[in-house]
Amino acid sequence: MLKVVDLEKKYKNHVVFQSVTIDFSNPNLYILQGINGSGKSTLLKVISGIVYKTNGNIYNDLKISYLPDKYNMPKLMKAKLYLKQIFKLNNSKYNLDELISMYQIPNKRIGELSKGNLGKVGIISALYTDFDCYILDEPLDGLDENSKHLLKEKIIELINDKKIIILSLHNKSLFNELKPIIIDVKDGFIKVKERKNKNEKKENSDIS
């Protein structure tokens, strides 16, 4: 189960969001969308247990893998060694050499990697380990087309394995065909749009 009920987050007198109730318990792809500063990242951090909620309840008995939009990695460590440690820690079943080759990540020190390659390292560390729920904040930023394709294929695999995937995105078009559940974040409030049925009119299929 992963569910938030009447969730609220405030920083002093600023309300980031309030009265948020969302049930993420069904294996699916959920996409948070909204302008910068709307509260998407904060909501993901609260759900992941990185940031404390102000009010409300979080019901969670799942193992969560969380990838923030900005994250710190040891800059002097080479990418392959870093991922090797992550895989060892999480008992990953995947072949690391194959993944590094697929994602075309140079084995440089992390501090020397481009934004796109840092994103690839983050995606491999977050998605290629065994968890119940995967939460990624803006994972497409800086990625090349090959890596976007690999990310999409991995998410399809996880959905088929009955996992829960929650993404924060500026542009959801890459995942439209997967019929995600869209969560609009605006002015401190959340609106969940259920997936459309195939028989519904095209003009009403803005989330499909």
Describe it for me?
The structure is a single chain. This protein has five helices and nine strands; from the N terminus they run E-E-E-H-E-E-H-H-H-E-H-E-E-E. The chain has 208 residues and is of the alpha/beta class. It has a domain of 141 residues: 3-Layer(aba) Sandwich (Rossmann fold), CATH 3.40.50.300. A hairpin with a 2-residue loop joins strand 1 and strand 2. The longest helix is centred in the last third of the chain and has 16 residues. The C terminus is likely disordered.
Q: Would you list the SSEs in sequence order as H and E?
A: EEEHEEHHHEHEEE
Q: Looking at CATH, which topology of the domain at 2-72 and 127-196 would you report? A: Rossmann fold
State the helical fraction.
25-40%
Number of helices: 5
Radius of gyration: 17 Å
Q: Quote the average pLDDT.
A: 89
For the record, what CATH class of the domain at 2-72 and 127-196 applies?
Alpha Beta
SS elements, strand count:
9
Assembly context of the chains: single chain
Low-confidence stretches: 197-208
CATH superfamily of the domain at 2-72 and 127-196: P-loop containing nucleotide triphosphate hydrolases
Shape: globular
**What's the CATH architecture of the domain at 2-72 and 127-196?**
3-Layer(aba) Sandwich
Provide the β-strand percentage band.
Answer: 25-35%
Strand order of the largest sheet: 5-6-7-3-8-9
SSE topology sketch:
Blueprint (H helix, E strand, L loop, with lengths): L1 E10 L2 E10 L5 E5 L6 H9 L6 E6 L3 E4 L11 H12 L5 H8 L11 H13 L5 E5 L7 H16 L3 E5 L12 E6 L2 E5 L15
Parallel strand pairs: 3-7, 3-8, 5-6, 6-7
Antiparallel strand pairs: 1-2, 1-4, 8-9
